[in-house]
User: What shape does this take?
Amino acid sequence: MNVYGITGWKNAGKTGLMERLVAEFTARGLKVSTVKHAHHRFDIDHPGKDSHRHREAGAREVILSSGVRWAHMGELRGDDEPTLETHLARLAPCDLVLIEGYKGETHPKIEAHRAETGNPLIAPDDPRIRAIASDVSLDGMPVPVLDLDDTTGIADFIAADLAPSPKATLGNDCFALPTGVEWIKTEAALAALRDRLVSVVGDETIATDSALGRVLSSDVVARRSNPPSANSAVDGYGFAHDGAKEQVLELSEGRSAAGAPFDGVVGAGQAVRILTGAMIPMGVDTVVLQEDVVVANGSVTFAAPRKGANCRRAGEDIDAGAVALERGRRVTSQDIAFLTSVGVGQVSVSKPLRVGVLSTGDELAPPEPAQGPSRTYDANRPMLLSLVQAWGCEAVDLGHVDDDRDALKAALDDGATRADVIVTSGGASAGEEDHVSALLSDAGAMHHWRLAIKPGRPLALAQWSGVPVFGLPGNPVAAFVCALVFARPSLAVLGGGAWVEPQGFDVPAAFEKRKKGGRREYLRARIRNGAVEVFKSEGSARISGLSWAEGLVELPEDASTITKGDLVRYVPFSSFGI
Ligand code: AMP
Ligand code: MG
Assistant: This one.
């Protein structure tokens, strides 16, 4: 349900605005309901009414109904008042719920404001206020200021604010191979994906402190400067620098501490005690370290540091109104600290990308109960499900299907309704049992990318009912490498994020190898004693090497002979976001 609030101090024009907005949205054809928070002692029932008598006698809830309207009353009898969420859950589905009051709740709101009331605005301190509707023009506000009488304009603002960001559509040919290409190089494949993929998810507003790992869907602007005012970087004494080196100043009464500023003016010839993080009082432009002064008989003696020393300038980190973080960024713990410090309590983020994972192959079975040697345990599905989760996606287990067209078709149909992207493994080559590629080819919009990469090679990219499908190779080592190299950046973009390039670095090789030309190779690797060693076997069925490794060595397409000590590019798994 769309929920939007009108808030403001007493006599700010809240109810009048509510009334006009309800009428406006109703006239636009929307079904509108409202919730109003009355003042604490307000009573909806009155002595003498029958309902009142029922309640007085002890009824817990009373429903009062007539041919005109009905009401459902609950008696609190000392219990806490129900939350807004509880009340909203009671409402029948509608297009818009407008809420009057409930200032502290997290839904987006417009603040009504009338200058004559003389009340300060709530908006500068409350990040949930999206606009101010005022009867005067106001400068320097952190949010748009609308005309309180312009009901249409305010309704338009609310409608635009609530509108889901349009779900982008992928081009039908987003997976088309560049024409004339038979073997596609990794760089070209990645460039094609980067250019063609777009976000396929909507967005939502959530509390900043629960945004870890989520992707920002719009630029986030600092609501106030950091620091918000000039403050002291040290414990010491603040004074006005007059150019003289030797200072003997009268110690003024009081002090400035963090959270408890000095509220007077420090005059010429005076110094004031000031602590780290405390606001610089009026009249002070320099702070001398407490270790560098002598305090005796009510005066402070010291050699003056340079003018401005030990003072942090207001906004020296970031100014209010500047973009703090850009859209597409995945929120880190550090970002949560940064956004909180600049007053951003809520952020707009992409809804998690739902990634369906499907295994294909007659030979596959779960590891329990134990199977005979002709069966292969389905290792890819739990691997891929956990990988996509690590990348911040919502993993949707689409199970396992045999190499059977109808079963596969049903699984893809199911996946297309439950997921935004489908990742399959197995059956992606062009062999007679490669049903994934055969079925996707028949359905059209399928492209078989013969990647010049080892391990990997066949990658089937297609759309099934408009949902992108990444058909990874069945071999677990190849499935893993292709997931890291191709699926990860693609899923990032589909999920509203920026394209991600794994950061690697050059490390001396602790191994020797002759490499053929023409394809890129990824070797399971790890660093020991400052050199990179590779797994004893390049066999792509050797899954143990995936656990042994801590990263991949990436060898470029050209032929080469690597000898010990040569620099090779090492990409740790952490650079792949795992
Ligand atoms: P395919 O690409 O279907 O020809 O499979 C290539 C190899 O990977 C075969 O040996 C398969 O048994 C194996 N394989 C395919 N899918 C999985 C899976 N989900 N788990 C483990 N091995 C698999
Ligand atoms: Mg197979």
